[in-house]
Design goal:
single chain; mainly alpha; two-stranded antiparallel sheet
């Protein structure tokens, strides 16, 4: 029963435990809670573990951003979901557009998995990790997109620090990238979700 369910915090009722290699979830209204999100984390962890034969060391923003991205990109029932790469979670864009004090890109790049277990500004952290990851994947700028794939490959090799990120993106300073991210979030936050039709 739910009372016996081993929730990790009051805010996380589905989660992946890398120490025990276990994914915890439960069914609510016929759907496994956070299965796609935490399943992505589990796949990333295990694939990196098998690739390097060492404990993975993904930065928190990357693993959480990609996990939320995959959750948002899957459409349909759990039996046969469809992958729509540009399908987004509007809530996160709206939240960040309306955030009075968003964290800068430096703070986001320093987010660790443990930061997503604290209740303080939790939704903001998720919104920043998710929208930054979405931006790096779908900015429309080929240099940014190629840089992100370079960084993802390096992160699988335990090279996920900010300096590795800057090297992969081929930038010295992050100010310009931060501005492009914020502009992208504002633009995407004003667009209807893919497949949505305005009016009746």
């Amino acid at each position: 029963n739910f009372e016996a369910y081993p929730s990790i915090t009051d805010f996380h009722f589905g989660y992946f435990d890398p120490a025990g290699r276990q994914l915890y979830t439960f069914f609510q209204d016929g759907e496994a809670v956070r299965l796609m999100t935490e399943g992505t984390r589990a796949i990333m962890f295990q694939s990196a573990r098998e690739t390097t034969r060492a404990e993975p060391d993904f930065p928190g923003w990357l693993i959480m951003g990609l996990a939320e991205y995959m959750s948002g990109a899957m459409k349909g029932g759990p039996g046969a979901p469809e992958f729509e790469p540009k399908r987004r979670i509007p809530h996160y864009f709206d939240l960040l557009v309306n955030e009075e004090k968003p964290h800068g890109v430096v703070r986001v790049l320093n987010l660790q998995v443990s930061d997503f277990l604290a209740s303080s500004r939790l939704q903001q952290k998720y919104a920043e990790a998710y929208t930054f990851t979405y931006f790096l994947l779908h900015s429309g700028n080929s240099d940014i997109e190629r840089g992100f794939w370079r960084f993802l490959r390096s992160a699988y090799d335990r090279k996920g620090s900010m300096s590795h990120f800057k090297n992969a993106m081929k930038v010295r300073k992050l100010d310009a990238l931060e501005q492009k991210w914020m502009d992208f979030v504002k633009l995407e936050g004003t667009l209807p979700p893919p497949g949505h039709r305005r009016g009746g």
